[in-house]
Amino acid sequence: MKRTATLLCAVALVHAVSCAPGVKRVIEPFENRYIDIPGKGAALVRSAACDVFIEHVSTEKWKKLLSFSAYSSGNPLTTAYRVPPFEFFQVVVRNTSDQPIAVEDCYVRWRAGKAGALGAGELRARCRGGSYRIYDFEGLLSFRRVTRGSFSISEMDYAKNTIGLRLQFIPAGDSVLFIRAFDWIPVEADSFDVVLVTRAGGRSSSVSMTMSRREYRTRGKKFAEPRKNDEEDGLDLEY
What are the helix (H) ranges across 70-132? Predict the structure, then answer.
């Protein structure tokens, strides 16, 4: 009887949380003639030496990432965890040249500022609570070679189709995946660029992908997310 009562309380608590008002944040690539969005997930920008796929790690995608043992020290289905207060992006670089490519830098920039990627040590220092123990930040930031399959988070099989890579460069013809984390971008920046700087054959080059950011109230009559047709027409209506 006590076990049943406890279960009912837990269900009621989950229902109450799911019904509570909140804010939904959407960060997605801004499609233009330089950026291709082939499907739901990673967007593609090309350069002379490589193809770069970039995807924002939304709250919903963490469960998939943390189910991979190289990225976590627990099971996201049974471990209580919090999403770190940073912006994370998965980056895949596909070397289309005939020479190795080095990743020199990765940063975000907006109209009034710029922020570099955070290291594993800084992420650990700023995520000390027990609800962050599931994260293996070294694993998240490390290079992994992608052997086959999709480059999107929702479709990638990390255990079968990626392997750890000790090299600090990307061999010709290979695809390498890594995660990068950045400090919270100011709310007034409704768009920003994710910039990746690479070096091949002694020459440095960069590619950038513009991301748009929108926030909506998830429940209630005001600040509801626009219907699809209204959003496409550029209208932000209150219902």
Answer: 120-126
